[in-house]
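Design a sequence for this backbone.
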């Protein structure tokens, strides 16, 4: 397994692979890897000859009072996991390499970025789009894999790739959960044992809403209220609970087969997100 830190070296290497007809997949991450990330790697292996995984804690997608400086990092552990799962190359640039002095260019998607996480994190998706474009330009992938845990992020990236004509195919992978249902996340590390236990209210209440919808309760406000109540009762502080159309991300008053329920809530100081389709998909764990 190779590890590159330089953009120009990575570009040169990717170009040499592409000239030989070798198909490249990119899995962009911020590191502190877990089985959720590895499901993206598995998907990448299935669709490409050469799997690159980037590890970069991207400062521009964090707001001023967010957890950039304390975001967990473990490059050694990440490398071991990547080696075990057949990653061919880790791209691991530092912040100066990615954002040289006087960087003044942004990439911004302006519709799907606005609701849900975009309301409380107004500059987040601009940071995400910008870094993903930079990662694409460094690694020159044929395909790139994103997780549905960050459903809105995957939607924004798909829209950006379409709008800007990137020759990159975007694939997404279902949420990977812990044995008890909590969506895997690098941020779960912040949770105390009690918070970890209480945070199960997120996936449990989403599942409850899904079951209610499957049994015919189609009122979005009633379903959202149920989830809100369960999460509040467990001590969670809600950022948003919304039922939206899975393509437009606009609110839906009544549940349809395209309805997604999306949640962001704080347990202690940790902001967790989760989502599920209400009608046609189970939460599986
Ligand atoms: P992150 O390192 O948190 O920025 O995540 C990198 C990629 O892994 C993103 O596309 C995430 O959506 C995806 N990912 C993170 N956690 C999970 C999970 N539990 N299940 C599926 N994908 C995930």
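Sequence:
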């Amino acid at each position: 397994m190779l590890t590159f830190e330089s953009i120009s070296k990575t570009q040169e290497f990717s170009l040499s692979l592409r000239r030989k007809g070798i198909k490249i997949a990119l899995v962009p991450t911020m590191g502190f890897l877990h089985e959720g990330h590895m499901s993206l790697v598995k998907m990448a292996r299935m669709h490409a000859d050469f799997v690159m995984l980037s590890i970069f804690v991207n400062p521009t997608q964090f707001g001023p009072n967010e957890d950039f400086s304390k975001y967990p990092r473990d490059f050694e552990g990440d490398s071991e996991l990547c080696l075990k799962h057949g990653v061919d190359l880790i791209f691991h640039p530092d912040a100066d390499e990615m954002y040289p002095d006087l960087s003044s260019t942004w990439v911004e998607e302006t519709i799907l970025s606005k609701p849900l996480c975009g309301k409380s994190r107004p500059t987040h998706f601009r940071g995400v789009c910008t870094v993903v474009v930079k990662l694409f330009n460094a690694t020159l992938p044929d395909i790139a894999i994103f997780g549905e845990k960050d459903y809105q992020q995957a939607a924004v990236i798909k829209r950006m790739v379409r709008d800007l004509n990137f020759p990159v195919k975007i694939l997404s992978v279902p949420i990977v959960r812990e044995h008890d249902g909590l969506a895997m996340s690098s941020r779960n590390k912040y949770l105390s044992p009690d918070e970890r236990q209480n945070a199960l209210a997120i996936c449990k209440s989403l599942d409850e809403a899904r079951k209610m919808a499957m049994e015919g309760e189609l009122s979005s406000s009633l379903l959202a209220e149920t989830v809100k109540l369960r999460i509040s009762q467990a001590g969670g502080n809600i950022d948003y609970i919304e039922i939206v159309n899975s393509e437009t991300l606009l609110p839906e008053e009544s549940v349809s087969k395209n309805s997604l329920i999306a949640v962001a809530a704080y347990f202690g100081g940790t902001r967790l997100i989760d989502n599920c389709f209400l009608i046609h998909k189970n939460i599986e764990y």
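The CA atoms of residues 142 and 168 lie 5 Å apart.
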